[in-house]
Amino acid sequence: MEPHHGDMEPHSPGPSIWPIGFAVGIACVLAGLVVSRPAVIIGAVIAVVFGALWARDAMRAGRQAEEAPAAAAPPPVATAADLDYEAETDGEVTRYPRNKFLELSTLGLGGVITAVVALPVVGFAVLPAFRDQVSFEVDLGPTDNFPEGDWIEVQYLYDPAEGDVSRRTAFVRFNGMFQELPSYTLISNRCVHLGCPVQASGPREDNQRKQIEVNDVQVTQTPILPANFSCPCHGGAYDTEGNRTAGPPVRALDRYKFDIVDGHLILVERYSVAKVEGEGARARIYSYGIQGPGEHVDGFEAWFYPIQPQDLGS
Amino acid sequence: MTVTPETRPPVPPPSRKKKRLTDKLIGLVMIPIDWIDERSAIPRGVHYFLFRKVPSDTNWFHTLGSATLTAFLVQAGTGVILAFYYRPTPDEAYDSIRYITHDVTLGWLVRGMHKWGASVFIILLFLHMARVFLFGAYKYPRELNWVIGVLLLVLGMLQGFTGYLLPWDQTAYWATVVGINLNGTGPIAGPFLAQFLRGGNEIGPNTLTIFYSMHMLLLPGAIAFLILVHLYLVVRLGVSSPPWSHEAAGEDRQEPEPRGPGLVRPRARGRFAR
Predict the structure, then answer these.
(1) Domain extent at residue A171
(2) Engineering a disulfide at A288: which of A119, A297, B161, B190 sits with its beta carbon 3.0 to 4.6 angstroms away?
(3) What is the pLDDT of residues A150-183, one digit of tens each?
(4) Is residue A100 domain-resident?
(5) How far is residue B126's CA from residue A80's CA, in Å, rounded to a whole number?
(6) B252 touching chain A per CB within 8 A
(7) Domain shared by A192 and A62, yes or no
(8) Do the Cβ atoms of A195 and B195 come within 8 Å?
């Protein structure tokens, strides 16, 4: 009879210390990722060694289980059906049984039909998020509104068609002319820890707020006097160039490229920054392609993020 | 005085009229049930499921699974009704939630049940898991059911994650920004997962509808399916005794008396065939 309550049945592999050691190793790796690098390596070695021993145990037990019944079972006796089948196949033409053909063709056709229906659906579910991602250029208004050396917090819609959900904020400072070209610092307000809105720590001059219409789209400009930037969510802090000074962020704040067209400041694409040396127009910016919040752009941790969705093009 | 059959006061004979009436009523109720049973065996299956044998020393901790199932059914029921009034677009979502809470009759109650019931569901999931873990009920031959339970836990947490965005207020929005970016920090696949969840480079209208669809259709469907498999395994493998049980484990199951030929015995009419 089929065993229903198999608690008394032996099951393989038998109890051993290997899985416990494996678990300790994994725990060591996880703890090490937070606490110290050497612990990661030690944990990995423990996990690999114990995992290998465990796997060897399991394989040996499985092999024994296979061998035991094979030895015990009587030698197979050809049944009448087998003989019939042999008689059929012994002929000059090797016959392919019809039921086998029908079975395979049913499975095959079913698989093809399923694939024909399912693949476009899966594609429809996944691909739109990766294709035709447009990056918008936003007109932030006349350059006259950005006096030299002053910080302005600018709120704009990156895609007016989407409405309020596309509202974003950037901190803008005109650094004056540098080698006869205007220099601006445009810092994104999205924390590079996990994307919360970074706030300017310092007075906001709300009474000098300007709401201007640029191409029928509202842009709000508020003068601010930041001593630094800080994030309300998990306490990330940055200096006025966007360098991380405290908290969990892994790099400096993202920045925007800019353009000046017909006397208007245009915000172009965003890029990631590892760190900034110096200040204002003479700052040296270690810039990288756009990365998500919490992702390293330099150091060995950057190896965790070899491909970005944006790299695939549209 | 000893009580002998002679001295015992006579038991009044049951009222024949009353008995006949209850018999008749039961017979009336059983007619449609028997009709369905003979053709589908579904009432028989329900009877088997409800009256199956469990160890005699099960206790209240064994009811946590059913409690979790009940919490899920409450979530499903209230959720379907909330969907009558909820509109998953950035411009309307928050206003429709306000409408449900303040204007729709008893809307505050149903939304409250769904909101607080979500926490109850997760808490019960963990308590049920703790019971199974501490009783050792995950051991052979029930490992597969533990694995399915873990999948159910993950799906339940995903329900919490996707449902949290739907009120579309500041808390919902920024919590989801953080949650998606948290997924984005996963090695190699993380940025792609985040991109998929956002439905693009930025959080926008697509994000809300994707989360709504997952919360409404994909995840509850998957949870319902896995719950069925989970219950099937519970019935097939039986309920485990507590660790302090004196009942011997590994006893063979008491097989019911063998059936005659055919699926339905002639005597099945008028009674549940067991």
Answers:
(1) 138-312
(2) A297
(3) 999 999 998 888 888 889 999 999 999 988 899 9
(4) no
(5) 57
(6) yes
(7) no
(8) no
